[in-house]
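hey so u asked for the seq, here:
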Amino acid sequence: MPLYKTLEVNSSTVVYVWKIQESENELSRNIVLTENSVRRLKGMKSEIHRKGFLSIRHLMAEAGYLDTDMYYDVMGKPHLKDGNKISITHSNHFTGIIVSKDIEVGIDIEKHRDKILRIAYKFTPIEEYKTIANTGALVRKLTVVWGCKESLYKIYAQEGLSFLNHIIINDFDLIEGITTGEIVYSGVRTKYEITFLEFEEFTCVFALKE
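ran it, structure tokens below
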């Protein structure tokens, strides 16, 4: 069972990360899905997406939950029936969840790809990064920025929210692994604490609402 990493963020919040190494049949064992989840799983054409879906259910089990304990709202945001907060993510062969008893949370895992250099202008003011001459460092930094914005978007979950125009990530040091962010939307400013870490050419970001 490749539970890759468990991080205790605070006394009420835990991050779980899974590295997918099993076959789809192996991941299906000991997992009971709702009828809706079975339909969703059958509708996934990609094997890696199906594996991701199933491995997230294993992570939920690590946190003490069954598939029946989670539901999605109209924006696609997951919720736990007991009122605790949850966010989920899947990227290639890594999946992750963050669960909190009392804080709104978001999580994202992203693979390091040069493609982010071409699309960065769509989600962040690219002129802010012109002093970074090393391509590898720039890919890493932009991947963190994207993960931060994705995590905040998952928490806020409002139609019309723009990564470029409404989500602000304050500057950070890659070594420190922490930053802060804000969402300014419809005249309301919301602040977030953000942590990030890197492993095996992936970046995992998780955010907590202040």
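Helices lie at 24-28, 35-42, 47-62, 116-119, 135-156, 163-166. The chain has a mean pLDDT of 96.
lmk if thats what u needed
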